[in-house]
Design goal:
The protein is 50% helix and 18% strand. Strand 7 and strand 8 form a beta hairpin. By secondary structure, it is α+β, with helices and mostly antiparallel strands.
């Protein structure tokens, strides 16, 4: 096989591939022999069909298939070995290939159009000044996290009078002759939909009897009423009047005081031993989570900065449009979508070049670390900060078994290392901002 690459412009080239019979004949012969072994033709036993008949029936199709497979393999080998900066994939020149006679010809030349990547030089050094936003957690955010940890270590306690959020136990009796009686009924008025019904329980004490209407209180919800009244859902509508609730017990969930039990549950045994350090540790935790957001914003700013600095890239749009439409099974691509794709392609090329310049490489451990960080963040959203490393790793490994998730995490691992390289290369103008102001700045990049 012979390859000839001829540039048509700075953005496109023609790749010619000359194939001789010797390049594909053995492959075709092998495939025809396989057909002969499997062919089921009346009048012949399996494996005994004359090769001449096999070639007559299948020869041209097999020849075309083997040449096409050979082309696919060798073209991409040539592009890789010769470091051709190709975008998309080679597109056959249909006018040229329409003249190919697959039946009679033995030697062939195939021509393909190739879109070439633009030439550019993305440089980042100390002369490049970029903003870096340090997000400051508010006192309310820290206090909210303190309360969440205290709640996790709280406990239920029996109390004498009702406050919103308490759980009531008692006897529920329908106010009609031979009505429903539910002993040991459990109810939380806080979940009632009607405020006036909820208010009937305000300040109620053990041994008090409160009259209310469950149907009104729970907005005729069959599921809630069926559970409360211990009847089938279809029977709920027949019990829409008043009931009495004789309170026998009031239980309240009380958050723990800030003590060593809370500190240990949050961050591990004796990591912190007083409230001041506890709050400082929470602030530190916020800072770690916020740094991920700050790094992401930096990457957005680098994209905007370099895109403007390097200017508009030239592409062979006709070829790229055909490639995109081919990937969409011939579906027409709108101009808006096409231009957005070019913008994403431009950033992809810039980021790839930066990764090469900074020698960014990721391995399985890097990807696992990113997966663990994502898992840790998920647990943190539920107030679980002190998750054992082996549990994080198990969850992370499960995530990596999903192909799409793994691909996204690999890209994220590359971004993480690239951001660190960029932070060391450029001059960062650091600025402390609130969460609200930071979100506004991120929306500016949207």
């Amino acid at each position: 096989m012979e390859f000839t690459l001829k540039n048509q412009s700075a953005t496109s080239a023609i790749l010619s591939v000359a194939i001789q019979e010797a390049d594909y004949s053995a492959l075709v012969e092998k495939q025809l022999k396989n057909f002969r072994q499997k062919a089921n033709i009346p009048g012949f036993r399996p494996g005994m069909v004359p090769m001449g008949l096999i070639k007559k029936q299948y020869g041209t199709a097999v020849k075309a298939e083997e040449i096409n497979k050979l082309l696919q393999t060798k073209i991409f080998e040539y592009i890789r070995e010769n470091k051709v900066d190709m975008l998309g994939e080679p597109l056959p020149i249909e006018e040229q290939q329409a003249n190919i006679n697959m039946v009679d010809d033995k030697d062939f030349t195939f021509e393909f159009e190739i879109a070439l990547a633009p030439k550019f030089d993305a440089v980042l050094d100390k002369n490049d000044k970029l903003p870096y936003y340090r997000i400051q957690p508010t006192d309310e955010m820290i206090e909210g996290q303190v309360k969440a940890f205290a709640q996790r270590c709280g406990e239920y306690k029996k109390v004498d009078s009702y406050e919103d959020g308490d759980m009531l136990k008692g006897t529920l009796t329908e106010s009609v002759e031979n009505g429903i009686v539910v002993r040991e009924a459990v109810m939380m008025p806080a979940y009632m939909k009607a405020d006036e019904q909820k208010a009937l329980f305000a300040g109620a004490k053990v041994d008090d009897v409160v009259t209310f209407n469950p149907s009104v209180a729970f907005a005729n919800s069959e599921a809630e009423l069926s559970s409360l009244l211990k009847v089938e859902k279809g029977e709920v509508a027949a019990h829409n009047g008043d009931f009495t609730f004789a309170i026998t017990e009031i239980t309240r969930f009380v958050a723990s005081e800030l003590n060593q039990t809370v500190f240990d549950a949050a961050f591990g045994k004796d990591v912190v031993t007083n409230e001041t350090d506890f709050r400082a540790k929470i602030a530190e935790q916020f800072a770690g989570r916020f740094e991920v957001e700050s790094d992401y914003k930096l990457l957005l700013d680098v994209r905007a900065y370099l895109t403007e600095k390097l200017g508009k890239f030239e592409y062979d749009e006709a070829i790229l449009r055909r490639v995109m439409e081919g990937n969409k099974s011939g579906e027409t691509v709108s101009e808006e979508d096409f231009q957005k794709s070019l913008e994403e392609l431009t950033w992809h090329l810039i980021k790839e070049q930066l990764a090469r310049k900074f020698e960014v490489k990721v391995d399985d451990n890097d990807v696992l670390d990113v997966a663990k960080a994502a898992t840790r963040d998920q647990f943190a959203q539920y107030g679980m900060a002190n998750v054992p490393d082996d549990l994080l790793e198990n969850y992370a490994k499960e995530m990596l078994k999903q192909e799409k998730t793994r691909e996204a995490l690999i890209n994220r691992a590359v971004d993480v290392k690239l951001i660190q390289s960029i932070k060391g290369a450029v001059t960062l103008n650091e600025e402390s901002v609130s969460v609200e102001d930071f979100n506004k700045k991120v929306s500016e990049n949207a």
